[in-house]
Amino acid sequence: MFAWFSRDSDSTSAGLQKMRAEFGQMLDAGRHVFDTAANAFLGGTDLDVIRQDLFTTDKRINRAEQQIRREIVVHASVHGATEFPACLVLMSVVKDAERVGDYAKNIFDLAELAPHPPAGEHKDRLVALKDDISRIMATCREIFDSQEDERATELIREAQKMEDLCDKEVRGLIRKAGELEMAPTYVLAYRYFKRVISHVRNITSSVVQPVHKLDFPEKPSSKKPSDDQQEQSADN
């Protein structure tokens, strides 16, 4: 879908490449704030030391979203209907990139509000999940640059499995809510982690999905999914 970024046209190249660079910076900043917030929640980080960096970076993400939106409007106005579908896609994924920063702030809030950092097997699971999320965020950035359909499809399916894992952990924690002091905190952590995964998946889906299917990738299957198969919204 983003093949438009790769076109080498004297009349459009400069503007498109500028938006591409700005969006890539949003993805990098999103991964940074997620890693920072998640590490703070999981323990071992001085919250006062990282607070300013986290919130300053999130503000930079917000400004980048606003700037790209302005540039999209100008670009679509100048170049007309042929660029409109791709402009819609970019408008959608910049919101996904911005939302990563918001969920990072939610995770940081947990670090401040939780009675103590995660511990034991629950910490081990969350650390492993955090590492996987950071990894797929880096992969998403690479796929955005390379526009590799096969890698995008693989990442989407991996992200869906990670989302399912978050749901499974939440169900188990709810059943143990009366037995585990930190259960509510862990539930929120898995929900916030899942939302970050979902937004990364949405961004990646822009490589392989048409405009009307953004946010609705098919569930993993042993067969190549068809357009008519049931779709799953990232907001579930």
Compact summary:
By secondary structure, this protein is an all-alpha fold.
What does the model show?
It is a single chain. The chain is mainly alpha-helical. It has one domain: Phosphate transport system protein phou homolog 2, domain 2 (Methane Monooxygenase Hydroxylase, Chain G, domain 1, Up-down Bundle). 72% of the residues lie in helices and 0% in strands. It has six helices and no strands. Helix 1 runs antiparallel to helix 4 and helix 5 runs antiparallel to helix 6 (183-205).
SSE layout and pairing:
Blueprint lengths: L12 H30 L4 H33 L4 H30 L6 H27 L2 H27 L7 H23 L31
Keywords, please?
single chain, 236 residues, mainly alpha, Methane Monooxygenase Hydroxylase, Chain G, domain 1, 6 helices, 0% strand, globular
